[in-house]
């Protein structure tokens, strides 16, 4: 681990970012350019003290998980992400269509979406980033770890996952989930994470095994969805997806027609979500751990 070079790189990348680059308000006049250390810590989901120690060459060796969080917070390119890993004494992650390093070009769009739910998904349907309204609508997906980070896995192993959709739509959703995983399997092959996930699900779910045997393939997202929120009930939303060039990641944006009932519910959800966020912040502790990618 090259602590001096790591600290210098973190400082340089932080100095090169402005609040508007990451969807933050500039606030009062700043004495120096770039983001503050505490702002990077918030974006990376770690304690400010932990991040400060890294910049001061005093921190322990960051885990690969922590480096992934930093790479996302600092909006690093793939080359910069690889460099960060090597400075910290880790090998650079493999570059495949199943890579979970969030595409900076999708993050730049997500950062500017404040009034509509939006999230970035991997080809395994892992949520790599969510805005606050997506968390209020769908829940905070960063709490999931291991195979459960994939919505495909949760769909077939956790009954609560299905409550987001009307009962009449769940059979179709089951087939769509499996078809998406089959598409990821095609990109990664028999030794990929997609293949491992499929094997785990074949052991865990008879329903999955039966649908998997159909060999349906598809990675399209419906352009119209009916979602159920536990407090607000059904919301009819339009869904648009923006893919990276290699189709490995997608930005999903959920919108409602102006002045519609769903639009009113989204506006209310924005208020409810902010209240929940403030409450969770007041009850949380800063321990430097984060379960995202």
From TrEMBL:
The molecular function GO annotations come to: DNA binding
Enumerate the spans annotated as HTH cro/C1-type domain: 9-81
Pfam families, from UniProt? HTH_31, MLTR_LBD
Q: What is this protein called?
A: Helix-turn-helix domain-containing protein
């Amino acid at each position: 681990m090259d602590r001096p070079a790591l600290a210098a790189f973190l400082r340089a990348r932080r100095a090169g970012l402005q609040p508007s680059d990451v969807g933050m308000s500039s606030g009062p006049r700043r004495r120096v350019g770039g983001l503050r250390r505490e702002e990077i810590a918030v974006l990376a989901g770690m304690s400010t003290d932990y991040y400060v120690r890294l910049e001061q060459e005093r921190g322990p060796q960051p885990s690969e998980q922590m480096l992934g969080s930093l790479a996302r917070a600092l909006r690093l390119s793939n080359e910069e992400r690889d460099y960060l890993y090597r400075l910290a004494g880790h090998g650079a992650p493999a570059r495949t269509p199943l890579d979970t390093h969030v595409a900076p070009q999708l993050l730049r769009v997500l950062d500017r979406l404040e009034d509509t739910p939006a999230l970035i998904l991997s080809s395994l349907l892992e949520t790599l980033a969510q805005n606050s309204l997506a968390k209020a609508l769908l829940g905070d997906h960063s709490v999931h770890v291991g195979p459960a980070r994939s919505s495909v896995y949760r769909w077939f192993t956790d009954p609560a996952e299905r409550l987001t959709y009307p009962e009449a739509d769940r059979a179709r959703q089951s087939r769509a989930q499996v078809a998406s995983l089959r598409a990821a399997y095609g990109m990664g092959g028999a030794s990929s994470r997609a293949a491992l996930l499929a094997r785990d699900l074949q052991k865990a779910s008879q329903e999955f095994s039966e649908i998997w045997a159909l060999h349906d393939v598809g990675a399209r997202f419906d352009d119209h969805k009916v979602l159920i929120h536990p407090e607000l009930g059904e919301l009819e939303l339009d869904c648009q997806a923006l893919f990276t060039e290699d189709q490995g990641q997608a930005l999903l944006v959920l919108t409602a027609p102006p002045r519609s009932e769903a639009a009113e519910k989204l506006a209310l959800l924005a208020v409810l979500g902010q209240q929940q966020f403030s409450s969770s912040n007041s009850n949380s502790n800063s321990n430097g751990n984060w379960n995202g990618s």
